[in-house]
């Protein structure tokens, strides 16, 4: 089977072609326009998707060397995400499906981040059910017990900010561009992770909270800048390394607890923050220390991409799960 996947839930317009489990192309147009605003501006995102969608889809076909009439279905992100952004991908997928007379397959963006692990070149061997997946992105932070492809249980989640949001908001305090996550990661490499200590939250079971660390960084910086206006510049690497260490420790503590208590040793990470080098190192450390089988996505499958959408569409295609052409996008969409 050859399937086209379309992703437009936030600020990346992406299209991918999957043949069996193999990704033939995975094209993305990232929207630089939001950088100067320090966050994604929904109106601008929607407009940029409209400009990007046709060239991105055309490029996905040409890179894959596939003709439009060769595809047997179209998968698209129905939600969750920004409604105006989702609408562009959804409408485009619907009209292309109609004109090519192929079935439409809706995809849950969060499921897709997790099921990206089943893309052929994502892992040497895919995880086995049940496995744990720490899903960490700009909008979500949760530990998911994945019992089967479409049988997932959220066993813990953040009660406030997502981990990616924490990286981005704390990066903003340090005057870094949006999204700050990758910049913090890069700067942390030349810093001392033990230079500064930030309090960790005490949360029930497998839940998370990241607003506390954001506030304590803010107050700490305000206090230090009053004494030395150049404090951030002089300590930027150490600040980034220390913040990154704290966020990763918070994430890993609960993941380890879940692995031990549920006795699940196949442990995956997914979502934009799974690109973080410190988190990847922590996973590798636990592979040795706790005997985990770890699953870390390739960079191109971490942040928003259509390859993961195409992958889920392919799984649903095999099950004969198609979506009515009258479907609409949905900003909220449970796992
Ligand atoms: P969701 O998937 O929850 O709808 P989203 O699509 O906005 O949210 P992703 O694209 O999956 O999120 O991830 C983007 C987030 O990942 C941003 O917050 C970004 O800062 C963060 N991020 C990306 N790379 C890194 C990195 N190397 N270290 C830390 N954070 C990172
Ligand atoms: Fe995402």
UniProtKB/TrEMBL annotation:
Subcellular location: Cytoplasm
List of residues binding substrate: 135-139, 168, 181, 185, 276
UniProt record, GO biological process: tRNA threonylcarbamoyladenosine modification
Cofactor: Fe(2+)
Known catalytic reactions: L-threonylcarbamoyladenylate + adenosine(37) in tRNA = N(6)-L-threonylcarbamoyladenosine(37) in tRNA + AMP + H(+)
SUPFAM superfamilies in the cross-refs: Actin-like ATPase domain (SSF53067)
UniProt xrefs under Gene3D superfamilies: 3.30.420.40
Keywords: Acyltransferase, Cytoplasm, Iron, Metal-binding, Transferase, tRNA processing
Main localization category: cytoplasm
Bound cofactor: record note: Binds 1 Fe(2+) ion per subunit.
Stored InterPro entries: ATPase_NBD, Gcp-like_dom, KAE1/TsaD, Peptidase_M22_CS, TsaD
Its biological purpose: Required for the formation of a threonylcarbamoyl group on adenosine at position 37 (t(6)A37) in tRNAs that read codons beginning with adenine. Is involved in the transfer of the threonylcarbamoyl moiety of threonylcarbamoyl-AMP (TC-AMP) to the N6 group of A37, together with TsaE and TsaB. TsaD likely plays a direct catalytic role in this reaction.
Stretches assigned to the Gcp-like domain: 22-310
Name of the protein described by the UniProt record: tRNA N6-adenosine threonylcarbamoyltransferase
Protein family (similarity comment): Belongs to the KAE1 / TsaD family.
Residues binding Fe cation: 109, 113, 304
One GO MF term: iron ion binding
GO cellular component term of the entry, any: cytoplasm
Domain of life the protein comes from: Bacteria
Keyword tRNA processing listed: yes
One Pfam entry name: TsaD
The EC number(s) this enzyme carries: 2.3.1.234
Keyword DNA repair recorded: no
Class of the enzyme per the UniProt entry, highest EC level: transferase
